[in-house]
Design goal:
Blueprint: H1 2-18, H2 22-33, H3 38-45, H4 51-90, H5 109-123, E1 127-128, E2 134-136, H6 137-140, H7 152-155, E3 160-162, E4 165-167, H8 173-181, E5 186-195, E6 207-217, H9 222-237, E7 243-250, E8 253-262, E9 277-286, H10 288-293, E10 302-309, H11 310-318, H12 331-334
Parallel strand pairs: 1-5
Antiparallel strand pairs: 2-4, 3-4, 5-6, 6-10, 7-8, 8-9, 9-10
Helix pairs in contact: 1-4, 2-4, 5-11
The structure holds adenosine-5'-[phenylalaninyl-phosphate].
The site of adenosine-5'-[phenylalaninyl-phosphate] (FA5) has 22 residues, from strand 6, strand 9, strand 10 and helix 11.
Length: 339
Amino acid sequence: MQQDIQQLLNKVLTSIQEVGSTDKLYDLKVQVLGKSGELTSILKGLRELTPAQKSEIGKIVNDAKAKLEQAFDARQIELKHQETTALLKSQAVDISIDKHLRQIGNFHPLSITRNRIVNWFVGLGFVVHESPEIDTEYYNFQALNVLDDHPARDMQDTFFVGDGVLLRSHTSNGQIRAMESIKPPLKILSPGTVYRADNIDATHSPMFHQIEGLVVDKGLTMGDLKGILSLFAKFVFGEKTEIRLRPSYFPFTEPSVEVDASCNCKSGCKICRGTGWIEILGAGMVNQKVLSNCGINPSRFSGFAFGMGLERINNIVYGITDIRHLYENDLRFLRQFVV
Ligand code: FA5
């Protein structure tokens, strides 16, 4: 019997080493040490032996059982480790994969500049109030005091898409839409795309973008307009930037001004054409007729408005000398504007 036990022990120890998976190791363990396993049957057979034999053989069987349990446990750890390693390998992510396969995009420079400007005005309490790109003559012209035969209509050659319906030629339609829907005091910013039948050249495009600002409140003056635009110029072009106001004409503002920002070049450059000043936007006090057209009493409220060309501001900020670069979708150009 002693010999049988030794033989069984050797045979099982070899099988434990040969087994290739934790599942098979478990089956083997059940086959040897389970309720009706081979070693368990030997233990059960001890009942028929004399007490002296029982104690001698019992010790041998228990020793064999302890050795087998130890061998099963050690092999279990080994196989588990192998299996986990194989699993991790099969599910591994290859972090060395060519990075060029996944390119991270970046914002278009116009989006960067628009977001900077909008966020700055929102920080001053302005609310973004977008208006339609396709609008009527009423909102684009009439309500803004640009009457039918008004020569100002020639200033903004317009794309008509139907009877009295047009692609807006400026974001000033947003002034009317805001004043019709919000009771003063109001402080809105209206960014968006606008269209004019202009030929494309280095500074003009038939499709471009504007950002309109409008504030209506009691007691507003040109001083308030100048204050905000002066801060704006410092924010967008740099702390040392000054502005100057030149008299101008827009039918919807009275008085009207063109606003110039001082050029940082000091000695005269292509952008300021040697004058030291760059025209940045049109502005003025909201014409009383326009307030009345929107049901606002001009003896109680006054307002100021400004409208800037986004491309113009953007190109001054980045030193871009030709507006066409912005629309050509040349990735070599666009990838330079990572924020
Ligand atoms: C207007 O459009 C007025 N609505 C601005 C305004 C708003 C005045 C509120 C007073 C109160 P203007 O036509 O000058 O103004 O256009 C404003 C800016 O749009 C210009 O300074 C210029 O930067 C830009 N712009 C005009 N035409 C083009 C074009 N074809 N391509 C690119 N930018 C243009």
